[in-house]
Amino acid sequence: MIELDFKKGEGLIPAVAQDYETSDVLMLAYMNREAWLKTLETGRATYWSRSRNTLWVKGETSGNVQIVREILVDCDLDTVVLKVDQVGGAACHMGYRSCFYRRVADGEMKIISERIFDPEEVYKK
Length: 125
Prior knowledge:
The chain is mainly β. The chain is built from 2 helices and 8 strands, in the order ββαββββββα.
């Protein structure tokens, strides 16, 4: 079994999702041990939602799932990079391909990507 160090981060480790083909950074989330094991078991990126305090299978609601193709683990065993196929085109819950859709330039934040979907439509309650 692959054991990561979940103790340092009070049970959570950062997980960077990166596009397998382009190496674009799509998002940063967190995993607890259960999310890590579920990701290994299913091959679908599973995270720990800090705001909802529950497991979160990426794309469960939106259909924009992440199929894990490769996993990199850092030297301290407390951070992972998931190289994924981003099904549906958008990783960000705001409807953008990447959560990093804004750039700081000239003292301002500027949107540098086009929105792929309208979150109001996708996440209707």
